[in-house]
Amino acid sequence: MQTTTPPFATRLHQEGKWLTRSGIDTVQINVGKLCNQACLHCHVEAGPKRTEIMDRQTAELALDFVRAASPQTVDITGGAPELNPSFRFLVERVRRDGRHVMDRCNLTVLLEPGQEDLAQFLADMRVEIMASLPCYLEENVTKQRGHGVYTKSIEALHRLNALGYGEENSGLILNLIYNPVGAHLPPPQVALEADYKRELGTRFGVHFNRLYTIANMPIARFAHMLRREGKFASYQELLATAFNPATLEGLMCRHLVSISWDGFLYDCDFNQMLDMRLGNGNPFRLGERPAADLVRLLRQREILVDSHCYGCTAGAGSSCGGTLQ
């Protein structure tokens, strides 16, 4: 099936819109592709055998950039970011500077050897946890993440709940992330959150703060699966047909900068995986010019777009913080 989807930039022009960065409220640091899981939907193509890992020098340069940008939030992701040797160093330094930290956690990493004190560390640092759990049903989690992951995820949630995560007024925020198992858009976020809370609460006594729904991006591992199944073009058409211009104002790329494991700068984590580097042919990289200069160059800069951007603007919209409407 040949796609008739217009380029995303063309669609923006048809709407009389363009995307520029309005500020830097969040710096997202991708510390590498090492992960204890290898999920079918993973746009990072992370896994246990990946060797792309942010080193300490780059982590220190990332902290310099954070201080220069002065964001409200530092969002640490991977891979399983907790497996990076500099993860705790980053968390401690960012929290010492008084900034909010989010950890994009796959839950099962809490049960890995050597991570026995990880949950307590996150609680002590008051880290907000964005935990991926693609469904409240074991069958669907197994399809996307493999056998045994569901049971481990529930055990990890129990550990976090025991420390106060997800408890009202505890200040320890535990949010869950939903990704569709197949080639379709997420259902309405509010209704699905109610389903998650009912099912996980009734079956396991698990509680959490919010559920965020995120569309699967037609890139990397998920794109490979779509092509194997002959669904890539139809999924891209689905996203484009559901394009919603009302989502443009809230797109995460308008107030976020993404740092890769090797220190390059991007508009978002998805652009990072497609190697859409910022810099007009001379990529911006940490350490190659003062952090303050990089921040200045990034403010009010036009966002780089491509066809995958339909994934963030389809339906109710999709971002690292869930739907946009």
Quick overview:
With 325 residues, this protein is α/β, with parallel strands linked by helices. The chain contains twelve helices and eight strands.
N to C succession of SSEs: HEHEHEHEHHEHEHHEEHHH
Radius of gyration: 19 Å
Strand order of the largest sheet: 6-5-4-3-2-1-7-8
Estimate what percentage of residues fall within beta strands. Answer: 5-15%
Mean pLDDT: 91
> How many helices in DSSP terms?
12
CATH class (first level) name: Alpha Beta
Low-confidence stretches: none
Helical/strand content category: alpha/beta
Largest sheet: 8 strands, mixed
* Tally of distinct domains: 1
Regarding quaternary structure, what we see is single chain
What portion of residues is helical? 25-40%
CATH architectural grouping: Alpha-Beta Barrel
Q: Quick one: how many beta strands?
A: 8
The global form is globular
Search tags:
8 strands, alpha/beta, single chain, about 325 residues, 8-stranded mixed β-sheet, TIM Barrel
What does this structure look like?
Helices cover 34% and strands 11% of the residues. The chain is of the alpha/beta class and 325 residues long. The protein has one domain: Alpha-Beta Barrel (TIM Barrel), CATH 3.20.20. An 8-stranded mixed beta sheet has the order 6-5-4-3-2-1-7-8. Strand 7 (256-259) and strand 8 form a beta hairpin. Helix 2 crosses helix 11. The chain starts with 7 loop residues before the first helix and ends in a 12-residue tail after the last helix.
